[in-house]
Structure formats: structure tokens, C-alpha cells
Automatic annotation (TrEMBL):
Species of provenance: Thauera sedimentorum
Keywords: 4Fe-4S, Iron, Iron-sulfur, Metal-binding, Molybdenum, Nitrate assimilation, Oxidoreductase
Record's protein name: Molybdopterin-dependent oxidoreductase
Family: Belongs to the prokaryotic molybdopterin-containing oxidoreductase family. NasA/NapA/NarB subfamily.
Transmembrane segments: none
Cofactor(s) demanded: [4Fe-4S] cluster; Mo-bis(molybdopterin guanine dinucleotide)
The keyword Kinase appears for this protein: no
Record-annotated 4Fe-4S Mo/W bis-MGD-type domain positions: 8-64
Portion of the full sequence shown: 8 to 722 of 924
Domain of life: Bacteria
């Protein structure tokens, strides 16, 4: 009773916001969710919830829901309510016609880390096995694809080695490019508790802003934006110089160290201090804290990932662990935090252009053939798929004609909004499968399909520590909204008919059957989940993978035997993370655009605020969108806090009130990512952000753009 579905008027489920993946008990009266409390039996949160999680019930039935399928007959006309059959038959006709005329790569799917694993799975099979395109990508591209590339390049697989329990065992935490106090509050509560229990726990935070997390740390390195790779290589330089590396571990369990060492000479703390914006002695101190730790754990998130050199940043940080043997034992390891509730599930399912189910690689012919056989299709497509920014560029160029968007809001969240909106205008056919009809993307939808939201559908999610939790419906979805996987499967069956193909592979009885098929594909892989099922999760509660068939339990941490899933069993010092000569920023700051714009999350809001923006109690922490500058910059430029300013970049401009914030270094500006056209009556921060992407992970550099700030001219 402690772990399975709650009885009576309560349902055990998981929070739909951040990747912490807290367990939630939702109370309901059969029609609406009336309250929530933290699940004391869930290992991610042990009963705690943050402010957002505590208001889940208030966000569960807000206004603005999509209630019925709506279709418009031509651009410029309003959408009209239609029945589900008509909506899905019409969509299948349009997709089939475009595929016939232009080929399968003329259509694309853009989905979401908010989807459940079962939703993800059906969309992925639909795109690759039925349509025959790798053009399926997720908004998780925007949050953690650089971590995926970093893990694969160093550890050999996208396997997050550590778990939350390691926070309790660590003697040193290196928190890099993350502000868990706001973005992963329950992880931060655990960090606070660990510090109380062990005052000797040392904490270093690396962040261009003096965040609440940085305030809590023993050492804050307020680095210049984009200088991460230099910093971690300089720390490694110190570790070598002071003989704080683990030479036995390097010799026995890694490859490539000599090549890296040869390049570290140019990365002394003195040599990089100016570029990093941090005194050399603080870099030395950070390295000593890491190198002398009994157990060092690194936690990171968007600050490393959302960069045009995100793979390099991730690799350089992981190298610190490989050089010191700080991996595969309690309290030690690299541990990336996922932003979204099921970004990790999407990685398992392989529902992104650059990965396949079971962490297979679409560029690996043998793995593609294996997957094709498992799916019962002759072959997987040969053409690489388009990643998020590429996908919308292809839409703008007319190469992709139709896009199916599910549970995400690209007209708010992708960089360079002007271009994204032009792409949606240009598309021949835009399907939007969404719970909300009032997002920035909704006006571009030719077909709007109402989707069930949190508390209304069932399946699973996987959190940052590889823990799979059940998500359960408590109340029926409003109007004619349906669970996402059922919409995708219904569409697939209709499309298969029009393509002259069998629809047998899309006839699951329920979400448990979808999950069962999904875990079968993972058997024998690093993310083996073949021993999991909905029934097992219901009986025994959330479980971590790997969890192979017949296992009694999953693995809390990975690589405990120091064998890695590479050809020679060794972890690699990846050249991607060696000292780089790339520009620190994706675009230069100059006299016309003198400020580096940073973007980020607030404590009490989530993404585009389609849920949290409708809960009055969540507006108290930060009641309005502002652009923040260091007080010295405000006075130097003759501005004043509170006045309206125009923030202009190379791609657009926004007008916002100005705020003074000493947490920022001079020369930096900061705008929260949440506000957009739906909440601000003007496009938000992503009007200004750069579409530059990391060359390996293809993650956009959402955190840095060059802007000018001047008083707004009154009309
Ligand atoms: Fe939800 Fe994240 Fe808060 Fe937990 S920490 S309650 S998962 S938003």
C-alpha cells in the first residue's frame, strides 16, 4: 500500500515539472484534483514538494485548455471544431500525400520531454518504422543533448553514473552551471540536509551569476560566460601539477590521457584567469577541493549544456572525475540533472533524431539492422534526422512540408523566434497536439488535437537518477482530450492504411503494453530495463535502471567495477573536451551590442507558464518579467531601475522593465525564459537568443547572446 496506486480518492503519481521526479499523492473527488502532497515512500523526495509541486492541483485544471479537435480549411481562416475521426483521417490524408509526393523526410515530428515514456515510444515508432524518417526530435534537444554527447564521448554510453543518494555520501560537491535552489528545489533540500549532517562537506559552485545556490556554497567561481572548458582544463592542470590525480585509475581504466596532458601546459590557472574572469588562486582552490575530496560529486545542468560548445564543457568536467578516479563509488561521479520530467525517458526510448531505442546509434548500421528486425520492418531510414533547430530551418526552407508538434511550444522556446515563427507560417501543414490552446504555438496550428494533461493520463517517467516512476490518471481529461500515446497510435493506424502498410504494430491494448514493448528493445543494452513492467512498478514502487530480466532491483550507481561500455572497456579522455580554441561566446559582444545576455529559470515558474502562470500563488516570488543588469552598469549608462528599456539583439528586440541585480557581473544582462507572447503581449527572451548549436550535440546556445540596452522610446 505504500508504493502501489493509492486507494479511494487518492492516486500515487509523479510531478510533471522538473527532472527531480518527485513522487506525489494526488487527492481527488472523481472530477477534479483537490489537493496534493509529497509521497513519503518516493526515494526522490521522501514526502517533500517544492512550491511548484505543492500547487500542482491548482495548475491541474486551469483555463486555456484545448477541449476539442479543431481544423482550419485554409490559412487565415479560424479553426472549426471537428470530430476525432475527421481530424485524424484528415491528418493522415495530408501526411500520406506529402510523403507520396516528396518522400518521408518531407514530414517531421517535434515532441517533448514532458511526454510520458509510452507517448515517446509510439511517436518514435511511428516516425522511424512507419513513415520512414529520422525526422523526430524533442525539446529535450534544448536541455540535455550536450550531456548525452558528453557521456557517450567519455563513458561510452549515455549512462548517468550517480544517484541522489550520492549527495549524502559525497565529501565535495561541484555544482556547475546549475541553480538547483530554484530549478531543482528538492535536490537542493537534499544538499542542504547533507551539509547540515556533514559540515565538512565542501561545495563549489561555478556560475556566471551569484545565485541562491552560489550563496550557499563555500566557494563560488563567477566565471565569464562560455569559459567553462578553460576552467575545467585549468583545474585538471592543477590536479596534475599537485599530483592529485589517480595514476592507477588512469592507467588501468582510461585511454587518451597522454594526448590531453600534452595540451594542458597552455591551461595553467594564470594563463586562463583573465578569460575565465576568475583569479588564478580561486581556480587552484577549486581544484584542490576536488582533488583532495574523499568522494567528489559533480552536479550540472543548463549552464553547461545550453552552449555552442556544450559537449566540450560536459567532457571537460567528466575528465576531472576520470583523472581522479572519482566515479563508480558512493558519493563520487559526474551527475547531470535533467531539466524536464521525462527527458531521461526520451533518451531511453531514443525519440530524438540522433539516438534510437535502447541507446542505439542511428549512424551504426548493425544497431539499425537490429532495431529494424525487432520492429519487423525491412530497414530503418538511411538519411540522418534533423535536430530541433535544423528541423525548423528545413521548415522555413520548404524542405519539410508538414510538422507534428506534441506537448511543446516551439514558438516560445526555440532560439531566434522570428525565424521559428516564419517557419511555422511557411509550413504547409502544422499539427499541434497539446493540452493547452493558449500557447504561443497554437495560432500556427492548422489542426489542434486536445491532449490529456497531468493527472489525466497514465504511464511512466524517468528522472535524473535513472529512476522509473509510475504516473497515474486521477480524473478524466476535459472535453474530448485524449492521452498522447493513443492519439499517435490512432493516427499511425490511419496513416498505415493510406500508405498500404500493416497497422498491426500500432495496436496496443493499453499503456502497459506499450511499456512492455519498449523495455524489450532495451534488453542487453546499457540501459537494460527488460525486467521492468507496469505491474512490477505498481507492486514494488519506482526502480532505477539497469533492471534486466530477472533482477531483484536496479542499480543505484554505475561503473562500480570501473568497466565502461567502450570497445576496450576503458573510459576515454575525449578530444572534444580538450583545451579548445573556439570562441567563448556564440556571437561577439561589440560596441553596438555590449552586454552578454544570460537566460534562465525562476523558482516558481515552469517553461512557458501554461500551467504555473495560471496559479496566483506562484506569482509572488517574481511578479513580472524584467531584464536585470549589475547596478554599476545601470548607473554608468544613466539608466534607472524600474524604467522601461529596449533590449535589442542581432535578431530582434523586447521591451522590459529594468531591474538592478548585483548577482550579475558587470557586462551581463539576465532575462527569465518564461515570459512570451502569451503572457507578455510580445515575444520573450528567445527573440534575442542565438540559433548557434554545438557541433556534436546540436544543442542551441540558449544562454548567451549579445544585446544592447537603452531607454525604450515611448510611442
Ligand atoms: Fe516537482 Fe521538481 Fe518541485 Fe520535485 S523539485 S516537486 S519534481 S518541480
Amino acid at each position: 500500500a505504500d508504493i502501489g496506486p493509492a486507494s479511494g480518492q487518492e492516486v500515487r503519481t509523479a510531478c510533471c515539472y522538473c527532472g527531480t521526479g518527485c513522487g506525489v499523492i494526488a487527492e481527488h473527488d472523481g472530477r477534479r484534483i483537490t489537493g496534493v502532497r509529497g509521497d513519503p515512500a518516493h526515494p526522490a523526495n521522501f514526502g517533500r514538494l517544492c512550491t511548484k509541486g505543492s500547487a500542482l492541483h491548482q495548475a491541474a485544471a486551469p483555463g486555456g485548455r484545448a477541449l476539442f479537435p479543431e481544423l482550419r480549411s485554409a490559412r487565415g481562416l479560424p479553426r472549426r471544431r471537428v470530430g476525432w475521426d475527421s481530424a485524424l483521417d484528415g491528418a493522415a490524408e495530408r501526411f500520406a500525400a506529402i510523403i507520396r509526393e516528396h518522400g518521408p523526410d518531407a514530414v517531421a515530428f517535434y515532441i517533448s520531454g514532458q511526454l510520458l515514456t509510452e507517448d515517446y515510444y509510439v511517436f518514435n515508432k511511428l516516425a522511424r518504422a512507419l513513415v520512414g524518417t529520422h525526422n523526430i526530435d524533442s525539446n529535450s534537444r534544448l536541455c540535455m543533448s550536450s550531456a548525452v554527447a558528453g557521456y557517450k564521448g567519455t563513458l561510452g554510453a549515455d549512462s548517468v553514473p550517480a544517484c541522489y543518494e550520492d549527495i549524502d555520501h559525497a565529501s565535495h560537491l561541484l555544482i556547475a552551471g546549475a541553480n538547483p535552489a530554484w530549478a531543482h528545489p528538492i535536490v537542493f533540500r537534499r544538499i542542504e540536509a547533507a551539509k547540515r549532517a556533514n559540515p565538512g562537506l565542501s561545495i563549489t559552485v561555478v556560475d556566471p551569476r551569484r545565485t541562491e545556490t552560489a550563496e550557499f556554497a563555500d566557494l563560488h567561481l563567477q566565471i565569464a560566460p562560455g569559459s567553462d572548458v578553460l576552467l575545467y582544463n585549468a583545474m585538471l592542470h592543477v590536479l596534475l601539477w599537485e599530483d592529485l590525480v589517480d595514476r592507477d585509475f588512469i592507467r588501468d581504466h582510461t585511454s587518451g590521457f597522454d594526448a590531453l596532458r600534452a595540451q594542458l601546459a597552455e591551461c595553467s590557472p594564470g594563463a586562463v584567469a583573465t578569460a575565465c574572469g576568475v583569479p588564478a588562486e580561486r581556480i587552484v582552490e577549486a581544484a584542490r577541493r576536488f582533488g583532495n575530496a574523499r568522494a567528489a560529486l559533480s552536479l550540472w545542468c543548463m549552464g553547461l549544456n545550453q552552449s555552442h560548445h556544450g559537449t566540450a564543457s560536459n567532457s571537460a568536467l567528466i575528465h576531472l572525475h576520470l583523472a581522479t578516479g572519482q566515479i563508480g563509488r558512493p558519493g563520487a561521479g559526474p551527475f547531470s540533472l535533467t531539466g524536464q520530467p521525462n527527458a531521461m525517458g526520451g533518451r531511453e526510448v531514443g525519440a530524438m533524431a540522433t539516438i534510437l531505442p535502447g541507446h542505439r546509434d542511428p549512424a551504426n548500421a548493425a544497431e539499425c539492422a537490429e532495431l529494424a528486425a525487432l520492429w519487423g520492418v525491412p530497414a530503418l531510414p538511411a538519411t540522418p534526422g534533423l535536430t530541433a533547430v535544423q528541423l525548423f530551418d528545413a521548415l522555413a526552407e520548404g524542405k519539410v512540408k508538414a510538422v507534428w508538434i506534441a506537448c511543446t511550444n516551439p514558438a516560445h522556446s526555440l532560439p531566434d523566434q522570428t525565424r521559428v515563427r516564419a517557419a511555422l507560417e511557411k509550413a504547409e501543414f502544422v499539427v499541434l497536439q497539446e493540452a493547452f490552446a493558449d500557447t504561443e504555438t497554437a495560432p500556427y496550428a492548422d489542426l489542434l488535437l486536445p491532449a490529456a494533461s497531468w493527472g489525466e493520463k497514465s504511464g511512466t517517467v524517468t528522472n535524473s537518477e535513472r529512476r522509473v516512476s509510475r504516473v497515474r490518471a486521477a480524473v478524466p481529461a476535459p472535453g474530448e482530450a485524449r492521452a498522447d500515446w493513443t492519439i499517435a497510435a490512432d493516427f499511425a493506424r490511419r496513416l498505415a492504411q493510406r500508405m498500404g502498410r500493416s497497422a498491426d504494430g500500432f495496436a496496443w491494448a493499453d499503456e502497459a503494453a506499450v511499456f512492455a514493448e519498449h523495455v524489450t528493445l532495451s534488453a542487453g543494452r546499457d540501459c537494460d530495463m527488460s525486467g521492468l513492467s507496469h505491474a512490477l512498478l505498481d507492486a514494488r514502487g519506482p526502480q532505477q535502471w539497469p533492471f534486466p530480466q530477472g533482477a531483484e532491483q536496479g542499480s543505484a550507481r554505475l561503473f562500480t567495477d570501473h568497466r565502461f561500455p567502450t570497445a576496450d572497456g576503458r573510459a576515454r579522455f575525449n578530444p572534444a573536451g580538450f583545451p579548445q580554441r573556439h570562441a567563448l561566446l556564440p556571437e561577439p559582444v561589440d560596441a553596438r551590442h555590449p552586454f552578454v545576455l544570460l537566460t534562465g529559470r525562476l523558482r516558481d515558474h515552469w517553461h512557458g507558464m501554461s500551467r504555473t502562470g495560471k496559479v496566483a500563488g506562484l506569482w509572488g516570488h517574481t511578479p513580472r518579467a524584467e531584464v536585470a543588469l549589475n547596478p554599476a552598469d545601470i548607473s554608468r549608462r544613466g539608466l534607472r531601475a524600474g524604467q522601461l528599456v529596449r533590449v535589442a539583439g542581432r535578431r530582434g528586440a523586447v521591451v522590459l522593465p529594468l531591474a538592478a541585480d548585483a548577482a550579475l557581473a558587470p557586462g551581463q544582462a539576465w532575462i527569465p525564459m518564461h515570459w512570451g507572447a502569451a503572457t507578455l503581449a510580445q515575444p520573450g527572451a528567445n527573440t534575442l537568443t542565438s540559433p548557434a548549436t554545438d557541433p556534436i550535440s546540436r544543442q542551441p546556445a540558449l544562454k548567451q547572446a549579445a544585446v544592447a540596452i537603452a531607454p525604450a522610446e515611448l510611442p
